[in-house]
Amino acid sequence: MALHTKLKPGKEAEYESVHAVIPPELDTALREAGVHSWRIWRNGLDLFHVLEVDDYAAMRAALRDHPANVPWQARMAELLAVEDDYSGDDTGIGLVWELPVKE
Questions:
Q1: So where are the chain's domains?
Q2: How is residue 93 annotated by DSSP?
Q3: 10: alpha, beta or left, given left = phi > 0 and alpha = psi -120 to 50?
Q4: Is the pTM of this model over 0.85?
Q5: InterPro entries annotated for this entry (predicted)?
Q6: I need a surface site. Which of 8, 58, 78, 102 has the fewest CB within 10 A?
């Protein structure tokens, strides 16, 4: 799953600082919701996320009201240009092409 989000101007360093160590209870919640890995790259204000997750829609449903995720999302809302309130049917960025695996 690939995602794109944007930071508010001037929030770059704060965003990176907040992500230096995520709360242990959020780490546990993500893993219990089927997340195997989550990487974020930043280019200016643009954030690009790549997740390995069993079922993205199920993960979002599990985290929507999770007590570890609600305060994290509130904190992210302070930094992101558009807050994620988990109300939509986010399906991520559509795949256009990938290098085929050679066997």
A1: 2-81
A2: P
A3: left
A4: yes
A5: Dimeric_a/b-barrel, Rham/fucose_mutarotase
A6: 102
